[in-house]
Amino acid sequence: MTPRITLATAARVLTQLRHDPRTIALMLVVPSLLLSLLWWVYDGGALFDRIGPALLAIFPFLVMFLVTSIATLRERTSGTLERLLSMPTGKFDFLAGYALAFGSVALLQALITASVAIGLLDMDTAGPAWLLIAVAVFDALLGVALGLFVSAFASTEFQVVQFMPALILPQFLLCGLLVPRDQLPDVLEAISDVLPLSYAVDAMSEVQANTDPEVWGQIGVVLGFSVALLALGAATLRRRTP
């Protein structure tokens, strides 16, 4: 990986995003709106405080997965990726640049969403707010990495959406949001133990419940999955769509 090329790729992606207000709104505004809608549904209260932190992990993960996978697919179908890879840009330079660009957006997204949840929606959390934001950023980065990986196997945007029931929905069902993971049947609990979103939700729940939360183990697992997905994405990325 060449840092200069990676930074140039990230700058190009951020420039493109700046001229796409709908995508910016999707990434920065929609997670906060969804969380606010949920607060309205439950009229605040204890139930919102219980599931709010988990959704603070899930919503950024989902949004960043969609935006990143579709944006990368468009680079390939338009021929941009083929032109870039014919120059000194390597596959990992390309993916790392995308991860850096969308990671910057993820940081801003986490700041906005966590500020809305804690400041406006009065979500109860015992741990420090900065740690809640940090976990949200790593969760969004996981969505970026998974989106970059999936984009290597999709030929159309519709195919990207088709990956959601296979890769996103099982994680949503088994992450501990609907049923605590230790109350799942043994087989399902074992499956949830190898799904990265489970550790993201565990970290959020730990920050919410404890004044001195120990979440670096869960964050390490999420970060490890993100790096592995980026490496797999670099290995499987095609120059163009057949």
From TrEMBL:
Residue ranges occupied by any ABC transmembrane type-2 domain in the UniProt entry: 11-240
Membrane topology summary: Multi-pass membrane protein
Annotated transmembrane regions: 24-42, 54-73, 94-118, 130-153, 160-179, 215-237
Protein's cellular compartments: Cell membrane
GO annotation (BP), single: response to antibiotic
InterPro entries recorded: ABC-2_transporter_component, ABC2_TM, ABC2_TM_bact-type, ABC_2_transport
CC annotations in GO: ATP-binding cassette (ABC) transporter complex
Keyword Cell membrane: yes
Major subcellular location class: membrane
GO molecular function, one term: ABC-type transporter activity
PROSITE patterns: ABC_TM2
Pfam family, one: ABC2_membrane
Keywords: Antibiotic resistance, Cell membrane, Membrane, Transmembrane, Transmembrane helix, Transport
Family annotation (PANTHER family): MEMBRANE COMPONENT OF ABC TRANSPORTER YHHJ-RELATED, TRANSPORT PERMEASE PROTEIN
UniProt similarity note: Belongs to the ABC-2 integral membrane protein family.
Name of the molecule in the record: Transport permease protein
